[in-house]
Amino acid sequence: MSHDAADALEAGREALRHFAWRDAYELLESADAAAPLSPDDLEGIAAAAWWTGRLEACISARERAFAGYMATGSRRAAAMVAMAVAKDYYAKGASSIGTAWVARAERLLAEEPECTEHGYLERLLSVIAFEGRGDFDAALLHARRALEIGTKFGDRELQAVALQDQGRVLVAKGEVVEGMAMIDEATVAAVSGELSPYYTGVVYCNTITACKELADYRRAGDWTDAATRWCERQAIAGFPGMCRVYRASIMLLRGAWPEAELEARRACDELREFNLSYAAEAFYELGEVRMRRGDPVAAQEAFKQAHELGRDPQPGLALLRLAEGKTEGARACIDQALEEVRPLHRARLLPAQVEIALAAGDIETAGAAADELETIRKTYGSDALEAAACSARSRIALEEGNWQLASRNARQALRLWQEVGAPFELAQMRMLLASAYLAEGNTDGATLELHAAASSFERLGAIPDMRRARTQLESLGAADVAGLPQARYSRTFMFTDIVRSTELIEAIGDDAWSDLLAWHDNTLRSLFAAHAGEEIHHAGDGFFVAFKDPSAAVDCAVTVQRILHDHRRAHGFAPAVRIGVHAAGATRDSSGYQGKGVHEAARIAAHAEGGEIVASATSLAGATLRFPASPARPVELRSISEPIELVAIDWRA
Questions:
Q1: Same domain (yes/no): 445, 548
Q2: Number of helices (H) and strands (E), helices first, in the chain?
Q3: What tens digit of pLDDT does each residue of 166-222 get?
Q4: Which of 107, 267, 590, 632 has the smallest count of CB within 10 Å of its CB?
Q5: Same domain, 440 and 572
């Protein structure tokens, strides 16, 4: 090995010791290119590749390390690498290859005296039984054996994860108090710095998952925040993607939907080549956000992606079908999903079954689902599970004509959702309570609840639900609707569309246009979300998006044009898009933002050329911009009485 390669190797090892994963990977790769590294150093490359999201490079290095250990007769070391490779293949969805590597590890250790490696094998078998087959008894047996071996040999990391695995299984079996105590004990070891980065991350992820499955969202949110901060300190790529999935779920629950969509999109990007099951969950969360914000086409696409990556897209897809009026399709979706046998997984599906069954007039099925949900709630216990059970009972009582029981359960669910911190579910309960009040003849009470629900839906951006609330208010009389204020907002509006799209369709054909439009829409949506933009409308090949300030809108517009430009240079083509930006006040109703400023923004966009960003000069006054703009010039716009001064943003600067 040359002097330079030796220096790179030593520097790479030092970077590993300081968890400088990116530096370690580059240095060790450089040394390996000069002369093949030892199995130990190949494991170092694999670790650095794993932490920076390079799964294929990680697998390649580990397979070489395995071969190296086998060549020297180091069977125990080879077995540990085989287990790591198995987990990598499971993560990328190649379960048959993963199983083959597990079998290799088992054969290598079969003739070895008992050692810590046997404990790690028992731990892996426990995870496979629990997460892969749902065999709780086998999982518990393997986890207990792993803990015994870890304790015997004083391996703190094996003890922590094996103890946590026992806790996870016990929670799933309904032994919540004992199980969570074990999970908490293992998590304390991670928080206190007793474990290596990998097992710290494992413990964090498993703790958050257990809290989420129990619907203990407050606790899940706290651990998610702690895990994300830890990932950021470690400069880790893979685990942050996993943490983003959890964060997206918690943000969705808390009502921060633009932020939830951004986190979900980032997780999709980070995990698609790293861990398919987490990537699938990220796409599912993305579908939930889009469905609630009233974009069924985009929601269905996200649910489709989740399904392709192995995640059952329920209950989201079933509820989407119900919203489309396809009740039988919704029933088929949810019934198939409920072939699932694990209680906590069923608890996520049963509220949707209640809603869908009632829409189909099947009170018997709805009642059975509500009873099962109540049984699960009694076993596992959490405010969110109790709120879901109360909500189900209220819906059924309302359908059966028991108004008092319906309103009592709705009020209880409302209180619980408020304690959970779930504003969307809370607003939904206000709608249900309003229906019960109306049935009782309490018009004033119903009006108050509908006003509160409509306001909440408006703040959240839940456009379909806001429309339903306003429609019910209108049915109570004009005076009641007039009592609901139309909020006025200061926003920066952006309109985009593809220029000469008709000519483009004629040139490339319908199928190619459909593919191009899907790429265009997905690309722009990801950029809107990344800049905290709220998609208001999408028609044809154009978007109407609202931002809270001009700087964010201009930054987003510049990024759009640069992404299109880069794609054009790399692939030979990208559609020419024109963008208009305008800051103005507007009211918001059930259809989105309304007012003169919205019309001005649309006319400004129409004035732009392909590949151009045009903004009103008044919008940029006082804004902090990172890009130069042309001198302002007055322009007369169609249907706008007074000229507006426009500037062009130089996105190439």
A1: no
A2: 31, 8
A3: 999 999 999 999 999 999 999 988 888 888 888 988 998 899 889 988 988 888 888
A4: 107
A5: no
Q: How far is CA 230 from CA 167, 192, 197, 198, 201, in A?
A: 23, 12, 9, 12, 9
Q: Which residues of 284-318 are buried (b: 16+ CB within 10 A; e: fewer)?
A: bbbbbbbbbbbbbebbbbbbebbbebebbbbbbbb
Which residues, other chains included, contact 650 with Cβ-Cβ below 8 Å and sequence gap of 6+? Answer: 627, 628, 629, 630
- Three-state SS sequence of 621-639: CCCCCCCCECCCEEECCCC
pTM: 0.75
Q: Say whether both 464 and 326 belong to one domain.
A: yes
Q: Which residue, 436, 459, 482, sits at the end of a domain?
A: 482
Q: Classify residue 259 as exposed, middle or buried by CB count within 10 Å of its CB (0-12, 13-18, 19+).
A: middle
Indicate the pLDDT class of residue 481, thresholds 50, 70 and 90. Answer: low
Residue 306 and residue 435 in one domain: yes
Residue 326: the pLDDT is 96
Q: How far apart are CA 456 and CA 41, in angstroms?
A: 56
DSSP-derived pairing of the beta strands 577-589 and 613-616: parallel
In the chain, how many domains are there? 2
For residue 89 the two structure tokens come to 């293949």
Please name which of 238, 193, 183 lies closest in space to residue 54, comparing C-alpha atoms.
238
Tokens 């990537």 belong to 279
Mark whether 542 and 457 lie in a shared domain. Answer: no
- Nearest 5°: phi and psi at 635? -135, 135
* Among 218, 212, 215, 241, CA closest to 228: 241
For tokens 């804004």, the residue is: 623
Return the CATH number at 332. 1.25.40.10
Quick: pLDDT tens for 253-263: 999 887 888 78
* Distance, CA of 304 to CA of 311 (rounded, Å): 9
Our CA angle for 448, 453, 454, nearest 5°, is 100
Lowest mean pLDDT among 285-289, 322-326, 473-477: 473-477
pLDDT digits (tens, 9 = 90+) for 407-426: 999 999 999 999 999 999 99
Last residue of a domain, one of 440, 467, 482: 482
Q: What is the mean pLDDT of residues 278-307?
A: 91
Is 462 contained in some domain? Answer: yes
Amino acid identity of 553?
A: A
Looking at residue 126, its pLDDT comes to 98
What band does 328 get if pLDDT is binned at 50, 70 and 90?
A: very high
Q: Do residues 226 and 204 make contact, with C-beta atoms less than 8 angstroms apart?
A: yes
Count Cα neighbours of 251 within 13 Å in the Cβ-side half-sphere: 21
Predicted confidence band of residue 449 (pLDDT cuts 50, 70, 90): very high
For position 487, what pLDDT does the model report?
60
Rounded Cα–Cα distance for residues 467 and 247 (Å): 28
Banded pLDDT at 483 (limits 50, 70, 90): very low
What pLDDT, on a 0 to 100 scale, did the predictor assign at position 537? Answer: 87
Say how many C-beta atoms besides its own lie within 10 A of residue 323's C-beta. 15
Query: Which residue pairs, CB below 8 angstroms and at least 24 apart, start in 516-522?
Result: 516/575, 517/541, 518/301, 520/575, 520/577, 521/298, 522/301
> To which residue do tokens 């790179």 refer?
8
Find the domain containing 360 and state its range: 295-482
User: pLDDT tens, 464-476?
Assistant: 898 899 888 888 8
